Amino acid sequence: MRLASCLLLAAAVSACPAPKSSETAPPMIRGESMPVGGMPPGSHAGAGPVFGGDKPSLPSATAVSATTPRVDELPPVFVDAAERLTAAALGRTRAWELLAVLSDTFGHRLSGSRSLEKAIDWTIAQMKRDGLDNPRREKVMVPHWVRGAERARVVAPIERDLVILGLGGTVGGKVRGEVAVVESLAEIVTRGAELRDKIVVVNQAMPRFDHARNETHYGDTVRIRGSGATEAAKVGARAVLVRSVTANSLRSPHTGALRYEDGVKKIPAAALTLEDAELLARLARRGKTTVELSLGAKTLPDSVSGNAIAELRGRELPDEIVVIGGHIDSWDVGDGSTDDGGGCMMAIEAAALLKELGLVPRRTIRVVLFTNEENGLRGAKAYHAAHGKEKHVAAIEADTGSGAPRGFGISGTPEQVAALQRFAPLFDGLGASVLEAGGGGADISPLTKDGVLSLGLHPDVSAYFDLHHSPADTFDKIDPDHLERNAAAMALMAFVLAER
Question: Going by C-beta distance under 8 Å and a sequence separation of 6 or more, which residues neighbour residue 27?
Fold first, then answer.
């Protein structure tokens, strides 16, 4: 099938609703618009490998090279690969079926859990069944934080339970105290000693998704989660409750890692639902409000885990590597299908598609499912320590959900970005032809720092943070067509990078 025919067929298929589509969002409480500053448009907190490094930056501009050639002007080997991968993805649901097994069988995959280790073993076995080369586990020591029992309750002037999730890495403890509500980290500093012995509630709203700029506002909001406990402790607060980092809510709390600062007292920290954060703000405006908080969290000794790795060995330059992957761990709520089970299945399926179609490139494509992205980046650091001296020509990470395919963000020199943008027409049939500057991922960030050309697979993220780190991150939210086309786009980009 020629590429033009594939494009027409792809357009027809994409116009039909997929059996598991979640594009129509239910009514949700929405954050109010607020000034944004300090971070580039669309960027995340995950620009560097910090504790709970999270996600790559998301470019906002639709920047396609003015010199983009027509499809028939590109080398035939790439046109052929695009045609075959586009055709293979249409109607195929294998990635979705694999994700269902992963999610249903193992559930959440928090670092230190048995479910994570069993899931890693399963992915290695699956890559072996797919005929990939040298499927293996490479040992990584990971943090072992355990949530324990949690409860929060308003005890005055009314009595009402609050819906919370302890932030990843929080200390445990029981606290009863008066609530003090602030709207930003800066307000904690400004109010200073006034917050001593209080339970500080950080009620900073995350603005709704900006479709015009592809802006999530996550990077500007997530600081309250990462630094809220430390900033509150510096002024003598007893605990902190942070409004969940999401713009939409159906009373679902969103967890995620915090970052304690050395030399500052560690205080208990949890995320509130948007609804409960607003409740506490209203009550506190009327008068003294008292909350009881109990967190059973504890940190155990480091646990043995591993990165899951396999390869499609290159035919001419096998020692030159293109990495594709996501992170196999997740938070301990939901089943982690969106963050990042889908990304892992994209990488496994991408390699399997290339293998099935006989598209073996000049260089080796290496699948890496990184462990412990969520609360330590130990898998990323261990991979770099073991393989950083090898010749990596590029790396692709998928860790922004499984929405409708959109394209890739590219971190490299202007010349490298322009060189890849020439291939944009190849991705039209998959809906993934937006190739723009700025991208990558937390797990490949050590390679990026070494100067390796780094890409982030960027699907539609307009609903991503509705699910992110919450009990709502479950398999039923995944669209099989979106997942498969993202996998095929990753396969095609990996082939281009490994063949050219």
Answer: none
- Distance between first and last Cα of the chain: 23
Q: CB of 409 within 8 A of CB of 58?
A: yes
| pTM, entire model | 0.88
CA gap 92, 88 in Å, rounded? 7
**CATH 3.10.129.10 matches 3-30+61-142+303-499:** no
| pLDDT tens-place string over residues 33-87 | 333 223 333 343 333 333 345 554 444 444 444 467 888 789 999 999 999 999 9
* Residue pointed to by tokens 């010199």: 67
Active site residues: 373
> CATH number of the domain at 148-296, please?
3.50.30.30
- Scan for tokens 């089943």, then name that residue: 335
Domains in the chain: boundaries: 3-30+61-142+303-499, 148-296
What six digits make up the tokens of 468? Answer: 């992110």
Give Cβ neighbours of residue 285 (< 8 Å, ≥ 6 apart): 181
| Ranges in the chain, pLDDT < 70 | 1-67
